[in-house]
Amino acid sequence: MTELPVRVVAAIAQARQQQDDPLAMFIYDLAALQQHIRQVMEALPDGAELYYAIKANSEPQILQTLAPWVDGFEISSGGEIERLQAAGSDKPFVFSGPGKLDSDLRAALRRQAAAIHVESLNEIDRLQRLAREQGRVQTVLIRINPQLPAQISSRLAMAGTATPFGIDEADLAVAVHRVDNADHLVLQGFHVHAMSHQQSEQRHRQLMEYYLQRWPQWKALSAQQEGITHLNVGGGIGVDYLSTSQFDWPGFCHWLGELLAVTAGAPRLRFEPGRFISAFCGYYAIEILDQKTSHGKHFLVCRGGTHQFRLPVAQGHDHPIIHLPQRSDGAGELCAWTVVGQLCTPKDVLSRDCSLKGVAIGDMLVLPLAGAYGYNISHADFLCHPRPCQLFLPLETASWA
C-alpha cells in the first residue's frame, strides 16, 4: 500500500488541529471493514461458516460492524465474553483456549455459549461438574493436537508438536469416551487450529484435505456419532505485511466448495479467523519528533512506538511506512530511515531501513494494516506515556474512543 484513503488523510488532519502535542493515533475505517467482511462471507461455500476471533481486535465498534455479517464470534476469556456482551451482539459465540478459569466457564454457561472447546481431560471433568451445578447440558468440541504431515507448516505452529493447546491425537479416544459418558456434555465435533500466519493457499488446501481425511476416524471414536456434525478448522490465515499480495480467499473458498461437494459425510466446517478480517481496516499514524544519525544509521524518532503498536516486534518484520508530508513538500533526497518510538529500549523499532524521500520533523508517518494484533496486544502503560486516541470512521460519521 502506497496511498492512503482520502478519509484517513482528512481524519489525521482534523486530529492534528484538535490537540497541541504531536500526534499518535489509530484510525479504523469501518466502511472498509464492512466491505471486506461482506466479500469474505459471500465467498464462503455451502457447508462452511465463519466466526470472528475477537482476540485480533475486540473494540466495540469493530464487533458491531462485523456482527451483521459473521455467523458468530470466537472468544478465549471471561473478559472477552464481557466485551462481546457490552457490544450488544446477539450472535452465538464459542469459547476456546487453554487455562480457562471456573469463573470463565460459569460465565460461558450462563451466557449459553454455542460451544465450549475443551482442551484437556481435566477440563472435561471440570466443565461436566460446572454444567451439572447450573443444570445445563453444554455442547462441546474437543480440541485435537493431531499428528501433521511434515509438508504442512507455517510460521507459527499451533499443533502437530508439543504445545499447551488441545489434546494429543493419541489420547483422543479417552477424551471422546469421557465426554460420551458425561451426562451434562454433548459432543458436537472437533476443533483443530494447527497454524497461524499461513499465507500459502496451497498449504491451507493440504490442511483441509488432511482434516477431512481424518474426520471419519475421529468421529468413529464416539458411541454417539449422530450428533457429531461440526469441525472447527480454526483461523490462522495470514496477512502479508510486506507486499500487496494476499491470501486468495475467493479462490480457496471456490476450491473448498468443490471438495465438500464430493466428500461423503463431510462435517460443517467452521472458520474462526481474526487477523485476516480486521487487519486491513486499521492505520497507526505517528508524528516525527526528531531526526538523527548514529554510527552511520539514520533514525526518525516518532511519537508513540511499540508500546502502542507492538505488531512489528511481535510479527518480526519491518512494517510498511507511508509518508504523509505535513510541514514539508516531500521533496529532497531519498534516504534509508529506521523508524523508532519514544521508549527507553533499543527494541522500540517499527521499521528498519525504510526508503523515504524528503521527510521532516513534524511530518506524519502512517503504518497501514494496523487493525489486528496491534494496539490490543501492546504494553500501553510502559513508561506511562498517554494512551493513543482511537478514531473509528464508519459509513457516514466518525466516533472517538
Automatic annotation (TrEMBL):
InterPro entries: Ala_racemase/Decarboxylase_C, De-COase2_N, Orn/DAP/Arg_de-COase, Orn_de-COase, PLP-binding_barrel. This is Achromobactin biosynthetic and transport gene lysA. GO terms for biological process: lysine biosynthetic process via diaminopimelate; polyamine biosynthetic process. The keyword NAD does not apply. Residues 31-279 form the Orn/DAP/Arg decarboxylase 2 N-terminal domain. The active site is at residue 344. GO terms for molecular function: diaminopimelate decarboxylase activity. Its cofactor is pyridoxal 5'-phosphate. The modification N6-(pyridoxal phosphate)lysine is found at residue 55. CDD domains: PLPDE_III_PvsE_like. Keywords: Plasmid, Pyridoxal phosphate. It comes from the Bacteria. Pfam families: Orn_Arg_deC_N.
